[in-house]
Predict the 3D structure of the following.
Amino acid sequence: MKERRFSLSVILILALCLGLVLSACGAKGAAPQAGGSPQTSDSSGENSTAGQPADQGAGGSPQTSDSSGENNNTGAFPVKFTTVDLYGNTVTEKSLGEKKLFFVHYWATWCGPCVNEMPDLSGLVSEYEDRVGFIALLDDFSTNPDGAKKIIESAGIPASFIMVDAQAPEMEKLLAMVQTGYVPTTVLLGLDGKMLGSPLIGSQGTVYADTLDKLLA
């Protein structure tokens, strides 16, 4: 009986690892957060492991928002920045507009799952851009800008999905939120700058929309 339980446990662990491999890539030069475990979402949209902190308050304690967030209000992106987007345009936190919450996405052109989910993200942005601000941190922004442009243009990514350099000094605070050691990784932020739930690691399919619907309800 013990051997059978052990075998089932091994099978489940291998299945979870395979799922992560198929939906995410190890971020180059980025190790998982200390004490952190990779997170994936099941079909219900619930994350399988505890989340990484979105921000550190006094004393280094993680800050999170409750499920209600501040979704009856709209506001500007809570992290101030000034940088350039993939097309050389100057963008700031105000470029995301006044929204109910914000979708922060970390990806790379060398990551197959990142590229494959771009058409789905295009539809997601089109459906929610009136209520949600979208910004993407591109890992290889400086080394493959032309490749990135081809990918997002082929997928029909709306211009409202702002693409910026993940390695830019101005993006340091945002990059810290999405650095789990894997791409793609997505976090959702409330108007107070606190993470809503846990990071979503790997391509998520319909989980993105399901999660946004719950938060916006």
